[in-house]
Amino acid sequence: MKKNLLKTCCLLVLLIPLGCFGQSVQNTLPSWAFGGFVRVKASDPIIAPDTSTRFTNPVNGKQVAWEANDTFNPAAALKNGKVVVLYRAEDRYGEGIGFRTSRLGHAESMDGVHFIRRKTPVLYPANDIAKKYEWPGGCEDPRVAVTTSGTYVVFYTEWNRDVPRLGVATSKDLIHWKKYGPIFKKAYGGKFFNIASKSASILTQVINGKQVIIKSNNKYWLYWGEHHVYAATSTDLVNWAPVVNANGELKELISPRSGYFDSDLTECGPPAIKTSKGIILFYNGKNKPDTGRDTRFNANAYCAGQALFDRNDPAKPITRLDLPFLRPMEPFEKSGQYVNGTVFIEGMVYFKKKWYLYYGCADSRVSVAIYDPAHPALPDPVTSN
């Protein structure tokens, strides 16, 4: 009798889904998607706060420990065979995310993993044309790409603690930047100038082994947005016109989905990439805190997704991942000023025939994960809560 009971119990255990015990269930990726990305364990995180560096704030002339509190949400580009990361750094003047001043730091690496940081920020609020848009909140959450002629273009959030606006600046060396102010200031008579705008992902392509900014239908193309994914076009990379619908309102390309990891937000990530399969938009999906959330992931967690758009019509979505390819798993991705966990992707470079993805960890650190197309790994597994 005991033997039969034992056999029955064992059979029942085998029939119960692994997720019921909180064990990992393997994730898979379609052929069009990038990944999986492998974390570089020996160096995580690669950039962390530094309380020793000082910077003279040009707005008030005071010395400030500009990267003492948090260093996160990085952009990335290549310069002279090296990886350069532009990371968001917060000082300690204020409490809570968005209520300290943010500036962009510069870090350089020969191998994409070990970085040497400049002692002072390279993009920050100053007494310039952008001051009224950037002070006192600062310069936040950059995305950067380069033109075929070698001009770097960075899109970032100008935050004056009133309205967040997408700003743009250009550089030849990733150190000295020329600011142009809000990107929607002129379009449609300023109709979208005073709306909240964040998170810009410009269209790029790998040409002759180098990822560069390209045009679509004779115009530069930009995905942007935090809640929904919108788009904008430009002829000069500085002044941008949002794509609108028949009613003259912002055209929503993709939106949050109830019951999925992106149930609350679909926020644009690193520069989009045109491939033979279509255009891939990497984005940050935020899970809802309550009704409609994906119960396999933490409430309010940020996970990384990918959406595929038509190769010839960048406004036409085709499909997207139902599961994130990268999610908060490591302790440093779940502990920091954002306690719900985040792998917030903003920077990616094609370096030594591999893709290096740089992301913010819990709004406190910077890390990297690597995708080798010649030897693709599995994406992050899914764990049922």
Descriptors:
38% strand; mainly beta; 4-stranded antiparallel beta sheet; 11-stranded mixed beta sheet; 385 residues; disordered N terminus
Description:
The protein has 385 residues and is mainly beta. It is 6% helix and 38% strand. The protein has 3 helices and 27 strands. Strands 13, 14, 15, 16, 17, 18, 19, 20, 21, 22 and 23 form an 11-stranded mixed β-sheet that branches. Strands 2-26-25-24 form a 4-stranded antiparallel β-sheet. A hairpin with a 2-residue loop joins strand 5 (70-79) and strand 6. The radius of gyration is 21 Å and the shape is globular.
Question: What would you say about this model in short?
Answer:
With 385 residues, this protein is mostly beta strands.
The number of distinct β-strands equals 27
Distance between the termini: 36 Å
Largest sheet: 11 strands, mixed
CA radius of gyration = 21 Å
Strand content: 35-45%
Oligomer type: single chain
- Structural category is mainly beta
> What's the mean pLDDT score?
92
Count of individual helical segments: 3
Which H/E pattern describes the elements?
HEEEEEEEEHEEEEEEEEEEEEEEEHEEEE
Q: Overall 3D geometry?
A: globular
pLDDT < 50 runs, ≥5 residues: 1-22
Percent range for helical residues?
under 10%
Sequence-ordered SSE layout with sheet pairings:
Elements: H1 2-15, E1 24-25, E2 38-39, E3 55-56, E4 63-64, E5 70-79, E6 82-90, E7 102-109, E8 115-117, H2 131-134, E9 138-146, E10 152-159, E11 164-171, E12 178-182, E13 200-207, E14 210-213, E15 215-216, E16 219-224, E17 230-234, E18 241-242, E19 265-268, E20 272-274, E21 279-286, E22 302-309, E23 317-320, H3 331-334, E24 343-351, E25 354-361, E26 365-371, E27 382-383
Parallel strand pairs: 13-20
Antiparallel strand pairs: 1-27, 2-26, 3-4, 5-6, 6-7, 7-8, 9-10, 10-11, 11-12, 13-14, 13-16, 15-16, 16-17, 17-18, 19-21, 20-21, 21-22, 22-23, 24-25, 25-26
